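Researcher: I've been going back and forth with a colleague about how PTS cellobiose transporter subunit IIA might be arranged in three dimensions. Neither of us has a model we trust, so I'd like an independent prediction. The organism is Virgibacillus siamensis, in case that matters for your notes. Sequence below.
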Amino acid sequence: MEKEQMESIAFNIILHSGLSRTMIHEAFKMMRDNSFGSAFEKLEEANDKLLLAHTSQTDLLQQYASGETFDMEIIMIHAQDHLMNTMTLKELALEMLYLYEKLENK
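Model: Here is an independent structure prediction for PTS cellobiose transporter subunit IIA. You can compare it with whatever you and your colleague have in mind.
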């Protein structure tokens, strides 16, 4: 794989996981405002962006699994880190949504 193609995949992962992260933070604000339905919808929207990032990662892993070799660029390491952190943040946000709703219903 050429360096430019690797960078393109990395930037795609960063773009979509970054958009997802922004949406997750918007959902946190909605949770604080007790707009739980809107927060859930925003988290679903964030998940759609996260899936786009994850698809890019999966495509890369499939190429690697099929025997293609390439030099790992630092930008790809950053992209992977960005994606994994956003995935963790999404899981945390879903748990927090549940807790906010539970607190509101007490």
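Researcher: What would you highlight for our discussion?
Model: I'd start with this: The helical segments are 3-32, 36-65, 74-104. After that, consider the following. The chain is about 85% helix and 0% strand.
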